[in-house]
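The freezer alarm interrupted the setup, so I double-checked each line after restarting. Inputs confirmed:
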Amino acid sequence: MEIVLAVMIGVLYAAGIYMILRRSLVKLILGIIILGNGANLLIFLLGRITKGRPPIIPGDLKVFAEAYADPIPQALILTAIVISFGLQSFAIILIKRAYKVVKTDDLDEMNAIDQDS
Amino acid sequence: MTQQLVIYPLLLQLFLSIILMFSWSKISWQRVISIGGGFINIAISIWLFVYIWNEGIQTVQAGNWAAPFGITFVADSLSVTLVLLTAISGLAVSAFSASSIVVARLKFGYFPIFHFLLLGLNGAFLTGDIFNLYVWFEIIIISSFVLITLGGEKAQLEGAVKYFTMNILASMIFLTAIAVLYGLTGSLNMADLSLKVAAIENRGLVEITAILFLVAFGIKAAVFPLYFWLPASYHTPPSAVSAIFGGLLTKVGVYALIRIFTLIFVGDVFLQDTILVMAVLTLISGGLGALIQNNLRKVFSYLIICHIGYMIVGLGLYTEVAIAGTIFYLIHDIVVKTNLFMVGGLIYRITGTNNIRSLGGLYKEYPLISLLIAIPLFSLVGIPPLSGFWPKISLITAAFTAENWWVIGAILFASLLTMIIIAKVWANVVWKDKVELPKRLNFRYFDKMTNIRKTQLVAPIIFLSLISLYIGFGAEHVQQLSTRVANELIDNQQYIDAVFKTGQNIKP
Amino acid sequence: MKTIILKTASTYLLPVLLLFSIFILLRGHYLPGGGFVGGLIASIAYVLHAFANGLSNTKNLLKFHPGFLMPVGLALAFLSGMAPLLFDMPFMTGLWYPEALPVLGVIGSALFFDIGVYLVVIGVTLTIIFTIADTI
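Predicted 3D structure, all chains:
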């Protein structure tokens, strides 16, 4: 399971970075989304996968008797998902506005700011 | 009351932005609330500062969950100093934006978002939890995205795309680094991490994690190979926005670098050397970049990069004197850079342009304002006894002790470049004869403004100039503060003890 | 996209989804659910309504701009976080009313925080989606 996830995370990171390096704005957004998913899976994997052991202490005990699934990575992933949800929706609106104003999807043609003014 | 003092600056900013959101369309109220809130913020920050100065490092465990399980807010001397500087710059910028930002932009929620940005800054400075730091960073960048695109002009949107991409990439790298660090240690509390990272056997993995953090914060702080987004975007938004960005946003990256590399990843020679090389190259490339620019705000943008180098140099040398120099430079730079961009905005309001070639004759028309502008400009160069001079002494002394001649050379070269640039700006903007420009239609020139609006433009510049004069002439006090901060940073046991309450608030 | 099936269904689905979102919100403390998920479900209810009946009808139905929910929710969450300060406890400490109420169960400040989150999520999501839909 870990091996499969590790390979998948690698593929997601590679794909995300490849997409970010393209010139098109739409591919840029896709790349950011894929990269975000890769990072979330990485947190999940590095929090150690423990199957079927919820982190709940039985009523008659004070501490955990055996190994349990770590709940923190899931809280972190949830937070990261919420944040990336906000960022991505902003990004989509931004590239749409940029496309309307600059009338191009190509990052190379966005060079008004480099001109002397 | 005072037990929870640490998070009051956060609560105040959150409260202000809620109030401002409720008065969404009442612009005149928003101006009053924002400026009034700025004064309260300064009062609270001073209170917090004095309290920490007397009582030592204080912590608050959010939700009453003891460290390292809950989120800890830690106020040490570095944090409260930066919170105080945020309050000062925040007040100046909210007064400046009340007059210089056009109403159409204010109607899209400029002030609520601005206070969210300040909330994020305060949070980032005060938190003691690395994932919480990530969350505050996200709050900062989301607010800054809104501020940088507000208005939606062509150059602004193009700049925003670049700013956005690099910052989001930095966040992803930061998140990756947190994931790896959590996998290594199983903790997120920075004090706890400090203990656990030191105990890890596999140093190679620790080094890679450190490099990930270095890249993530390096992008935010705009250090050498990672700064290209900054000059592409910082001159596009209105100058009030550039002022808060130039003054504080890159400094959050510097703060995070200082915090991480003095608390968690300590004593690694390879990392120190990497940081030092990056710093030297930042100093040189930023200075050279500023030399060839003709747009006033672009010149200032490159100078931000150049001067980030000074702060990183101190971190790379990693001695108490060097860190004290870094902290002093940080204090000086926040005030002066905020002021510089506001000066740029004022010049733009007076003349209608930011191009150095078309500017001129300021001294003949406005001699007093020219004199005022001289203070931030020459503080930046560091002509004694103005504020930029003292930290450079500390840095050069530290480099001299370490016998690191390259670093001394770079510091001196960057100072020389800064001086040439500022002299060029001064000669062109203030002393050169006036260039007759065609009057722009639909543009509010400075001399057409009402007196209250004029005051709102000039008063913040006077306020920040006075503070930078104080930093220069009262350098003894600031040096004392910097030394204390440096001592706390080098001897990070104090921080750890305060978080775990083992030593019970050690006094210096 | 104005099919009669979706249109008829959405009129019934709107109240059902809203009720379901409140159920999800309330069970959130011990079971999967909570303010964020509940808020998303509630905003999906309105988005579905907008798909079926057109954006302007949904806006009429809402009576006010969804963005108004953001400060309301934030204020609620802020106040519930502030409440422990009155009892000299750290920010965001959970305060609980000792006895269970009928239907709702034990009430604590965490519930109000979650309601705040619920409102903010509805406000933010609807504002984003309405803005994107408006400009297409």
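Quick read of the result. Confidence is low (pLDDT under 50) at residues 503-508 of chain B.
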